[in-house]
Design goal:
By secondary structure, this protein is α/β, with parallel strands linked by helices. It is built from five helices and four strands. Helix 2 links the parallel strand 1 and strand 2. It is globular, with a radius of gyration of 19 Å.
């Protein structure tokens, strides 16, 4: 009986591909550079039908949470973050000026991705081998970053990179924010739903 066979392959990324149909602007040039450097972004780097990553002009920002920032907790999962950001920015109530991504670990790809969306970014390395300690340090850094970037806010919305928001995500927080402000016994409002479905 033979032993295990391990095969490793390194397939180089094709450099210099060009999407000639893309507009000639700095943001599209930035996207082109990103797509030449990183793989796996499908519709973001599609030459013929690239997805829009800018906020639609018609989206409403709800008055109750107009100045409440959204903080995305991220690590090394850039593709998860991409799906999260793409959906978040297209959700009614989103405000890119009040959106911050806080990442732990190797952050260059995450930093470049967040720059495409024109969002704020803060990165660090929590430096812990123990998973629980690393997560604890990261969350401390997340909250420190949130209130450093947005010192005037009295609350924040925290979202992890692998979550997809519902279409009424910001509407829900707009309706519940007054509860937090009026009831001192409330610590937080959660939108987590174990039974949620994609629609």
């Amino acid at each position: 009986m033979a032993g295990h066979l391990y095969l490793t392959a390194n397939v180089p990324k094709k450099e210099g591909s060009s999407c000639s149909g893309w507009p000639l602007s700095s943001s599209w040039a930035q996207r082109h550079q990103f797509c030449n450097k990183y793989e796996g972004y499908g519709d973001l780097c599609n030459c013929h039908n690239p997805v829009s990553i800018s906020r639609p002009q018609t989206l409403n920002i709800f008055e109750n949470i107009k100045n409440v920032p959204t903080i995305i907790v991220a690590s090394k999962r850039a593709l998860c973050l991409y799906r999260c950001l793409k959906q978040l920015i297209a959700t009614e109530g989103s405000n890119p000026q009040n959106t911050l991504v806080v990442a732990d670990g190797p952050t260059q790809e995450l930093r470049d991705l967040v720059a495409l969306f024109k969002l704020k970014f803060s990165g660090h390395d929590s430096g812990a081998a123990n998973v629980t300690l690393r997560i604890t340090r990261h969350y401390k850094f997340v909250f420190d970053s949130a209130f450093t970037f947005f010192p005037e806010t009295d609350m924040v919305i925290i979202l992890e990179e692998d979550l997809e928001v519902a279409p009424d995500f910001y509407r829900y927080f707009s309706q519940t924010a007054p509860l937090l402000r009026s009831d001192p016994t409330l610590y937080c409002v959660s939108a987590w739903n174990d039974y949620s479905q994609r629609h």
